[in-house]
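Thread title: Can someone regenerate the structure for this chain?

I was given the following input by a collaborator and told the matching structure tokens would be attached. They weren't. Posting the sequence so someone can regenerate them.
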Amino acid sequence: MAGPSELITAVEMAAASGIAPKRLRAALRAASLDWHSHNGRWEVVRGSDQHRDIERVMAQLTGGRVRLLSTSKAAQGACKAAIRDEHYVLDLCDAVLGLKAVRQHCFPFLTGDPDRRGHRKPLPVDGFYPALGLVVEYHERQHRERVGFFDDKPTISGVPRGEQRRRYDERRADLLPRHGYSLVVLNVDEFSHDRAKRLLRTPQDQAVVSHRLAGFIS
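Best answer:
Regenerated them for you:
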């Protein structure tokens, strides 16, 4: 059990980044992130996998301007790099398509596993282009390989985090086409990257995106 000094609440995280707590909680529900209730409050352990996931949501709400609260500098760097890489790839897609993606869009038919009360939260997609009926997902290393002991951590739906991520990726791949939407998944391995799978951002990246989205370029 985590001690009081190790826990941080949604209100505290929101206040540190200038986000309205109600807005942050709504975004976290939409992102299907796990929380642990303590004395009636939503809390997570500082520096945990859930904590870094929540920081990513906060960065999306603030356009990347977020005060990271993880205790590990390495964890902070990895979190910020992951946020920047996803935004970078979607920015490339916007440039190639000449359209602006709706980021973190939720479809009513795309939901996560039920929690203990049977409630299913929406599963957001990285980028949605309504005019094209196109969804673009950027998959970092954790979508294709095991990432430490965090993949074994239990989730609210009763399966390990790694298994839940695999299920949700498959769910998007299955349900989006069935509802008439095209799905393009761009993987980190398609781009030049360093040993930690952070993108190097070379001139060839736009060519990769252009090739993968060729069928949607007018």
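The chain is about 40% helix and 15% strand.
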